[in-house]
Design goal:
It contains 11 helices and 12 strands. It is an alpha/beta fold.
Length: 292
Amino acid sequence: MAFPHLSYGTPRKLPKAASLPGRVVVLDVAFAANAGGASFDKVTRPFIEGLGDRLAMWIDHHDHERHADFAGDPRFVLRTKAQHGACPELVTPERVAWAGEVQTVCCHLDFDGLCSAAKWIRGGVEPYEGADADARAIDTRLGTPSARAVTLDRALRGRPRDDGLRGLIVRYLAEGATDRTLLGEIEHAAGALARFEAESRRLSAAYRVEGDFAVCDATRREGTYDKTMLLLIGQQKAPISVVHDESTVTVAARFDSGIDLVALLGLDGGMPTRVSVAAKKLPEVLDALRAR
């Protein structure tokens, strides 16, 4: 199995196109929305233009109004979150074959993105039976993922800035998720999440409920916290949870809530039930939630 160069990106921060060798496939990376100083024209378009003909395929499942610009380009497989709760199910043997040989896989940082990368490396075949379903359960926070997937997700959340761990997880999945030595290293990394969860539980005591949303001030934290867990705790108190710290305001609702936060906050793309904007926009966010 040929193992490509791995690169990681987010909607707001993509690698330099010139730094990526050969032909490139992009997986589970949304187009940038007009939030946090990023935008399609500032971040996504320059990356696409920088890759040019070296872009083999771009597969994503997040909403964005600029998807329509690429409807005639078969390299772009762009769907919405409602159509596909996770990205790996869009990585099929037919699409991998159509794209041809690639030297670089650029993917998102989470379980969904890494599982997509591993599935691409495997020619569109799941790393293990049920991996696609696990990715949907983890990315939507609906359903029950397998114990294996929970461990991988916890490792990524426990060491969120560790590219070495991401590479190890992609290799573990790409090789069929059977290597006990690799899994042991991943399990060790997953243990780091426990202390972040403890801080999230402490912070959750500060939630205040206003109407149909709950707000938590995370600027008074005593250490690193797990934002996903803190948001989920908030959704137990109200349909919409808001967590803000010194850099970011994150708003979330259940995947099956029918709430469209992208439209509510006037963004041009992203995940309808989880969005982040700059901290200075907290008053605007709260005003929009009060007016809904």
